[in-house]
Amino acid sequence: MSDVASEAAAFKRWLFDVALPLWWEKGADRVHGGFHEAISLDGKPLPGPHRARVIARQAFSYCEAGRLGWHGPWREAQRHALDYFRKHFVTADATVVSVVDLDGKVEDRRFDLYNQAFALLAYASGHHTFGEAHGWRRQAVALRTTLRAAHSGKRSCARTRIG
């Protein structure tokens, strides 16, 4: 086995046997929902505000874990992240706020395109896993529509200023 192949196999074992179970067992916030931002070196969650991109990445990561063959509770973990995300981060215009506190109240409303991209990634993974029954495709389309409308408006404003 080549060095790259053996390293990849070792990484996959670590991911399946250590990282994914640890994040589901210790990293999932079972009190408030979502996932903790960090876990200490001794395996204890470090409670703090939740960022949209972290919760969205967890949803996507557990979907990918299932696709890669992890037999752990990837669907449950993904659903845990997605449900929290939809409940606390999504605004009326389908965009995503940046940060919520532990009680799920918005702490930072700032628009960040990076968070919107991770939301689309999470929605795509949710649709891949659960189909349209939970509305993940509809949520992605709504966000994309808002982003396109905002982008079109900014582009026309930029044209007006330039020329």
The residue fraction in helices comes out at 55-70%
Runs in which pLDDT lies below 50 for 5 or more consecutive residues are 155-163
How many structural units, i.e. domains?
1
Look up the CATH topology. Glycosyltransferase
Number of strands: 5
Q: What composes the largest sheet?
A: 3 strands, antiparallel
How many individual helices? 5
CA-based gyration radius: 18 Å
In percent, how much strand structure appears in the residues?
5-15%
CATH class category name: Mainly Alpha
Instruction: Report the principal-axis shape.
Output: globular
- Main β-sheet, spatial strand arrangement: 3-4-5
The secondary-structure class comes to mainly alpha
N-end to C-end Cα span: 61 Å
CATH-derived architecture:
Alpha/alpha barrel
Average pLDDT, rounded to a whole number, is: 91
Order of helices and strands: HEEEHHEEHH
Describe the structure concisely.
The chain has 163 residues and is mostly helical. It is 63% helix and 7% strand. The chain has one domain (3-162): Glycosyltransferase (Alpha/alpha barrel).
Explain this structure to me?
The protein contains five helices and five strands; from the N terminus they run H-E-E-E-H-H-E-E-H-H. By secondary structure, it is mostly helical. It has one domain (3-162): Glycosyltransferase. A hairpin with a 5-residue loop joins strand 1 (38-39) and strand 2. Helix 2 (52-67) runs parallel beside helix 4, helix 3 (74-89) crosses helix 4 (113-130) and helix 4 (113-130) runs antiparallel to helix 5. It is globular, with a radius of gyration of 18 Å.
